[in-house]
Amino acid sequence: MKKGNGIALLPIGVFLVLYLGLGILFEYVLKIPMGFYNVPIVVAFLAAILVACVQNRKVNFDKKLELMAQGVGDKNIITMLLIFLTAGCFVGVVGRSSAESVAYFMLALIPARFSVAVLFVVACFVSVAMGTSVGTITLLTPIAVAVSAASGFDLPFCVGAVMGGAMFGDNLSFISDTTIAACNGQGCEMKDKFRENFWIAFPAAVITLALILILSFQTEIHGRVDQSYHLLQVLPYVLVLIGGIIGINVFVVLLTGIASGALIMLLGGHTTPTDLLANMGSGVSGMFETCMVAILVAAMCALIREYGGFDALLGWIHRIFKGKRGGQLGMGLLVGAMDIATANNTVAIVMANPIAKEMAQEYRVTPKKTASLLDTFSCIFQGVIPYGAQMLVAISAAHELGYEISAFQIMPRLFYPMFLLLCSLIAIFGVEKKQR
C-alpha cells in the first residue's frame, strides 16, 4: 500500500464545491426551477480532472494521460458504458404507454379502496422493468394526481407511494443505471447482486405496502380512475425482468426486450418505423451524460489512486469504522454523502466505486454485498433529499396539472426509503451478529 496523501483527494473536493455550491445557488438563491440539474456536471468533472493533472509534478503529463487511459479502459467501465447505451435503447423502444398500461390495468381490476397500494405496486413493477426512478415518477405522478382527485386520497400520500415504488425498482432493476454502475464497478454478476439485494428491498416493500393499506382504510373513498390500456405492451418488460432474474446475459436480455418491444409497437400500429428509430436514438442520447460521467470519474480516480488519495481515505475510514460491520456501514455512509453532494445516485456510486472496492478488500466484504450496499444506500438518500430529481419531477408534474405540493409535504409519506434504511441496518448488524 502506498503512503496515504490526503491532498490527492482535492479534485473530489473541487467537484463537490463546484457542483453542490452552484446547485444551491441556482435552486435556493436564484430560484431557478430544477436548479441543481442546470449545473453542467461534465464541466464540473473536467475542472476536477484539471486539478488532478496539475497535482503531483513528479509524474509527467504523458504518464498522467497513460494512467487515465488505463482507468477508462478497464473492462468493467467499457461493459458499463455498453449496458447504459443498450438500456437507453430499450427504454426508447417501449415508450411511456407501456408503463401507463400497467397502471390502468391494475386500477381497473382492483377496488378503489386499494388505489394507493396499486400505485405503489405498479411503481415497483414499472421501475424494475424500466430501470429508471425518474422515468417512473414522470409517468405515474399524473396517474397519482388523478387517483387523488377521483378517490379522495391525500395527494402527498399518492405521490409518496409512487416515489417509494420508483426507488424500489431503481435499487433492484437489472437495467437501472445504479445497478449497472454498482455491479460493474465491483466486478460482480447482476443476478448475484439482485439476490443479495432482494432480501433487503423486498421486506421494506412489504412493510411499506402494509402501512399504505392500513392508512388507506382510514380514508373515505368516493370514486375511481378508469382509462383504456394496451396490455400486450407490458410483455417486453416481463421478458426483461424474467431474463434478468434467471441469469441470462444482460445484453441478450436487453436485445430480447428491444426486439419484442419493436415488434409489438410496429405490428400494433402504435408507432411507425421512423418514429421507432427516432425513439431508440432519443433513449440512447439520454444516456450520453451518464456515460461521460463514468468516463471522467474513471480517469480522475486513476490519478487520485496513483497519488495515494484512496490510501489516505482508507486510513481515515479504518480509524472511524472498526470491523466488518463498521466497514459495511462506512461504505453506505460514503455513497450517501456522495449522493447528498451530487443529488444523483448513479454519479454517487460511480464516484464511490473505486474507494468501496478497496474498502471491500480491507474489510473482507464480497463484491455482491458491496454492490448491494452502494446501490441500496444511494437509493435511500436519493429517495428523500428535497432537491433530488425524483422529488423535483414529482412536484413539477403535479404543478403542471394545477396542483401545488411541496417536498416537505411529501417527505413524511416516503415510507419505503425509511423502511429500506431500517432493513439495511438489520442486514448489516443482524447478519454479523448471527455469524459471530
UniProtKB/TrEMBL annotation:
Signal peptide: none annotated. Keywords: Antiport, Cell membrane, Membrane, Transmembrane, Transmembrane helix, Transport. One of its GO terms (cellular component) is plasma membrane. It is found in: Cell membrane. The keyword Acyltransferase does not apply. It is a multi-pass membrane protein. Residues 41-214, 248-399 form the Na+/H+ antiporter NhaC-like C-terminal domain. GO terms for molecular function: antiporter activity. The keyword Amino-acid biosynthesis does not apply. It comes from the Bacteria. The chain crosses the membrane at residues 7-30, 36-56, 77-96, 102-131, 143-168, 198-217, 238-267, 287-308, 414-431. Belongs to the NhaC Na(+)/H(+) (TC 2.A.35) antiporter family. This is Na+/H+ antiporter NhaC family protein. The lineage of its organism: Bacteria, Bacillati, Bacillota, Clostridia, Lachnospirales.
